[in-house]
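**C-alpha cells**
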Amino acid sequence: MPRKPHRGASSPGFLAGRGLTLALIALITVLGAHLLTRGAESLRLDLTEDDLYSLTDGTETILARMAEESVKPIEISLYFSETTGKTLPRFIKDFIGYERYLRALLREYARAADGRITLRFVDPLPDSDDAQDALDDGLDGKPINQQGDLFFFGLVFETQTGSRDVIEFLWPNEQETVEYEITRRLYRLLWPSRQRVGVLSSLEVVSDASNPYMAQILAAQGRDPQESWLAFQVLAESYDVSVIDPETDRIDPAAYDLVVVVHPKALSPRALWALDAWTQRGGSTLVFVDPYAIDDRPPQNPQQPWLALQYAPSSDLDPLLTAWGVERIDDAVALDFDLALSRATRPGLPASRVLYDLSLEPSTHSQTFAAGHPILQGLDAVRMFVAGGLQRVDGASDGNAEADADDGVRYLPLITTTPTGATVAVKP
C-alpha cells in the first residue's frame, strides 16, 4: 500500500506555505519600513536622552500666548542648499544632520502654535529665484567653489505685516542654543515692545556711556566712561536695561519686568525694604552674591594703607535671603580637585591645580548641572573663580535636586561641585 506523503520539510505544500508566509513577512517589513520612513519626521514621541525634539516650557508658553491672543500667522522659511552642498560631501555631512533636526524642531513649533506658524523649506539652487530671495532676505551665502556658487543655511521670519528677522547662517556647533534664538526672534517680532530690566548693584556693572550728560561730566574729569559688563551688554541687545539707584526706597512695579541684583554690598535699609516689597508683590528677581568680587576693589588711602588689607570684597543680602529661606555660607569658598584648573599662579612657576579656579567642562556636567534644566542648555565650559556656596537656612544643603519648603519656596541647586568638592572658610 503506497504511503501517504508526509507533511514535513520536504513537502511541496509546506514549502509553498512557508514561501507565502515569508513573502508576506517581507511585504509587511517593506511596507512598515516605508511607513516608518514617511512618518518619522512627524513622529512626536521623543526618546532622546535630553529631549532634543521637545520644546522648553518657555517656548511653549510663548506659543500658547500666540493662540490666546489670536495673533496673525507668522511664516518661517528654512533655506538649506542641500543640492549645492552635495558637491562637497565632507562639508555637508554635519549640516544635513542639523537641517533634519531643525525640520523636526520647526514642526514642533508649528504644532504647538496651532496653525499660527507656517513653514517653508527651500533648497535654493545657484542662479535661481530662491537664491536671489535668500540674498534679498539677508541670508549669508557662503562661496563653495570657483564658480561663485553660494551655500545657504539660514532662517527667515516674516509677519503678515512685512516685519522680518533672520538668522543669517546656522552653524552645527550652535545647535544647543538654536531654540532660544528662534523663540527670541518670534517674541521680538510679535511683541516688539521690549521688556525692562532694572539693575541694582554696588558696582558699576551698567555703564553710563550712553548718557550724554554723564559722558560730559566724566570728560570734564578726564575720565572715560567704563563699559558695561559683557553680560549686561548681551542683555541690552534684547531688553531695556537701566540702573536702579542703590538708595531707592521704592521699586515701581510698572517700571520693570525684572530686577537683577549684583553684589549688593551694604545696601541701605531703605533699598532692602524696597527690594523685599518688590519681591513680595510677585516681582521677578535675580540675585547674585559673592564671597570675593574681583571688581570690588578697596579704596586707596596712602595715609592708611592697612585699610586696603582689611577690606572684604564680599556681598550678601541678609536679612532678605534669610527671610526667603536661603543663605550664603559666610567666608566660604568652593574648592574641588576634580574641577580645578592646572595653571601657574605666578610667572616662572610650574603649573599646579588651583582648587578655587574651577572649570566645569561637558564631561562633568552630569555631576554638576541640574539635569535637563533649560537655563543650562547650550552651556559648554563654565569658569568659576573663588565661587561661594548657598544653603537652605535649615542647613539642608545636601545637594538634593529639589526640595519644597512649607511656605512654597522651591529650592533647586542649578550648579554644584562634584562629590569631591567642599567649601572652605577663608578669613581676611
